[in-house]
Amino acid sequence: MGPEEPEETFKVSDRRGRSSDDEPPRPAVSRPEPVAARPEESRKPMPEPVPGPGGEPERSLVGLFMMLASSAVVSLGDAPDPLTGQRGRDLENAADAIDLLALLREKTEGHRSPEETQVLGELLYDLQLRYVNATKRSGPPPAPARP
Predict the structure, then answer these.
(1) What pLDDT, in 10s, does the model give residues 118-128?
(2) Does the structure show a pLDDT above 80 at 5?
(3) Residues 35, 126: contact at Cβ < 8 Å?
(4) Residue 145 has pLDDT above 90, yes or no
(5) Phi and psi of 57, rounded to 5°?
(6) Which residues, 6+ apart, have CB-to-CB distance to 46 below 8 Å?
(7) Cβ–Cβ < 8 Å for 94, 76
């Protein structure tokens, strides 16, 4: 830039409301709803995040487990797709999500909290039952073609 060209600058303003300037902002925490086998079943509330060092919520695997479980439920046709609002069935995608949860159970063994272990076990049990019921409804898979 030459001396006659003005320097480009920009200003960033923090518009988040805080009670005082010394208090750090609080991150927004959203909790996914648990997957229930039937709508009439009571749903257990998700536990509150536990503050870790520095006052921030401790990270938990429950959100990841719930995300994968929700994907499997939508793929099984038990819930409408959040984007389209329509129900569809993709058993291969559902099986992949369930297998991924089983892999996470295996690979995180000994590193999960008791709560994470319980949630993962309940989700896998529920999803495996749903998958078996879905495959029974759709009939046996087609036999491979013989040459």
Answers:
(1) 999 999 999 99
(2) no
(3) yes
(4) no
(5) -65, 140
(6) 31, 32, 33, 34, 62
(7) yes
Residue 113's pLDDT is 93
Q: Cβ–Cβ contacts within 10 Å for residue 137, how many?
A: 10
Residue 40 CB-density burial (10 A; 0-12 exposed, 13-18 middle, 19+ buried): exposed
74 to each of 61, 83, 113, 122, how far by Cα in Å? 20, 11, 27, 18
Helices (H) and strands (E) in the chain, counts: 3, 0
Tokens of 127: 């999803």
Q: Output the pTM of the full model.
A: 0.57
- Read off the tokens for 40: 């009439």
Q: CA angle, corner 36, sides to 35 and 42, nearest 5?
A: 125
CA distance 50 to 30: 14
